[in-house]
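Dear U.,

For the methods section draft, I wanted the exact inputs and outputs in one place so we can describe them consistently. I've listed the two proteins in the order they'll appear in the manuscript figures. Please don't edit the token lines directly; just add comments below if something needs changing.

First protein:
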Amino acid sequence: MALPFKINNISALQTFQFLRFLCFLAISIYFTKVPLSPEDIGSWEMLMFINGALSYFWVTGILQSFLPLSQRSRAFVQHKRVEGKSPELFNAFILLLAFSIAFALLILLMYGYTATHTETPKIPYPGLLIIYFILSNTSPLIEHIFLIQDKPRHIFWYGIISTIVQILAVCVPVMSGMGLEAAIWGLIFVNALRFLFLLFLLFRHAEFRLSMPFILNNLYVGYPIMFSALLSGSTQYVDSLVATIAFDAKDFAIFRYGCKELPFVVMMTSGLNNALIPAFSVKKNIPHVLAEIKTKSLRQMHILYPLSILVMIFSNVLYGRVLFNPEFYRSADVFMVYQLMIISRVVFPQTILIGLKKTRILMWAAIIEIALNIPLSLYLVQYKYGVVGIALGSGLIHILEKFILMWYNYRKLGISPKAYTPLTWYIFYSALIGIVFILIDKRIIYIM
């Protein structure tokens, strides 16, 4: 079906990221509007947290390192290729599947330990979680297959269809009075369909040739990205881990509902990052790619900063009246602070480093970040800001990490921040959102 507007790989991935966020946001909102108990909502949030926390770092590392290796990898230079088939795809799938099974076994061990040593196991529905974990963490390869094949319309329509089906599969059982367990089975059903679709694509486009050299190369390029993501790459998961230490179950739920960035920010920045990584594989294109990052990031700033400022101002209205019920009103403060994450999102030194396979610095920068993030967040929670302290501490340290990467690009690679960042606009917008935050915090700007 033809689209009435132009779409490319960047906009398609951005749309896909937005739909993924929108899907789980819509489900979370719906769960607060129907007769599900706070305990059921807490169980759902815990399932999503465990699945994400135990997978996001290695899924990110494998897929982002796969992108620059996906085109004619050296591991297959001496092998005759089957026309139209990619052995790289098959090996990436094997790597994702192996990690999925390994971490599913870890979940099983964690459940066994908590069931033995605590009165109430910390992992709800462990059997269903393990099935969902394996299915859901291999399917992200689908959109990356379409990406390397330069099929943005396929990414777009796959995102639209899968989002609609998942919302219906999860919400209809609850609407019918079948309860949370039926909703989880609905989630598993959708991801089983995704997994079958992935197998269809592999049979169509992949050459089933196992290559340990390729897998080891993928891991070599990807392990610094994995460690970087594990330590700092997904702020919400690290912050939620700190929240489990600092808060009881009720405050944890309040924090989890608030620790959400504006979906457009995540959608547009991650889409731009992933879409431009493969372009660095051709060295003569690097100046052009840097200029493209600068141009497209400026376009994002003009859109995302005003939107973030607007939702900061109206965060109380959104949480207290529009989206959730009054029990989650305090989540608005956490949500407001999370909008400051835009300051670190709209600069892209990591895109350059991943594209050039200079990934070790990502790991070391993340180690520095996590070494500062957790103690600072716990300090702000205990002595200053309560539930908001985690978000504030994490935001400050996350900005520091991006500056470390920008410094590395300048000193070690000779790439000035001006080559890929519109610095004047970046400083202006960052200062503006900081001022607005202070005015809201001091109740000079305050809308109920």
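Second protein (the one for the lower panel):
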Amino acid sequence: MTTAEAGQRLDKFLAAQGRAGSRSRASDAVSRGRVFLNGVEVAVDAGARLVRDGDVVRLWIDRPGSASRATRPPARGGLSIVHEDGDLVVVDKPPGLLTVPLDGDSDAPSVLEALHDRYRSHRTRSPLVVHRIDRDTSGLVLFGLHPAARADLVAQFARRTPDRIYLALVHGHPSPSAGTWHDRLSWDDEACLQRAARDDDSEAKDAESQYRVITTFSDASLVEVRLQTGRQGQIRVQAQLRGHALVGDRRYRSSGDERAHGLTFPRQALHAQRLTFEHPADRRRIEVMAPTPDDLRDLIDLLRRRARQSGAP
């Protein structure tokens, strides 16, 4: 968004050549959930909104060879399937659902169990987890549907070649507004969480994330985080170590975070938004996207209303 374009209606901005190309196509893109303003899917009635200098507007267009979906996928067997073929499946996991069953908690539902039910009648398909996200984190999780596909995908993650992008709402305002978080982390078995490692900890592991502040509110910031490594709880602990714990996080937070900032949320405000990887069968680029979940979008809208009421820019 340039200064010269500031003040236009969003649908007019999108209708320009090189974007949607017409007002009707722009309106259709908004209604289908294919437009993202500052990293967040816009509401269906947002076409009349005026864009501002510095806004980041993204129009999500399916490309040949891409499996991306910007619209919310239909729930099938209780799951939102974003991409599915004979080799793999990608699920848009809702918050509160485990990726895989926990030891000793067999009654808690999980994505893996739901997928086993889905493929029960398929002799050649058996879901195998490739990576995980926390129970209260929403967004994309990937499964292979046979051992060879799973092995290839796991190897890609080990090489750190997949592109994994998250949305995080954090307390305060990270400074600088973009950069890299690099830490040495050590897993605490007793507390079941990551900690900053001691210098002499031989089992410590590197954790690296690139981050960019998308927009700021009076007491919080919406941040895009790209994982370079994939340690358990990585984004949560790295944000907390810099004094910017995730809104709603009850494990990785400083005492009194929510009381101090006046923000409450029933889970950590973290969403696995985009995932790009190579298909294990033919090496084509697969790119998938999960729309911002309703609870997180409602919280962001609340913060925007507060900012307008306070007269913040």
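Candidate sentences for the figure legend, describing the second protein: Residues 62-76 have pLDDT under 50 and may be disordered. Residues 1-61 form a domain with the Structural Genomics Hypothetical 15.5 Kd Protein In mrcA-pckA Intergenic Region; Chain A fold (CATH 3.10.290.10).

Thanks,
Y.
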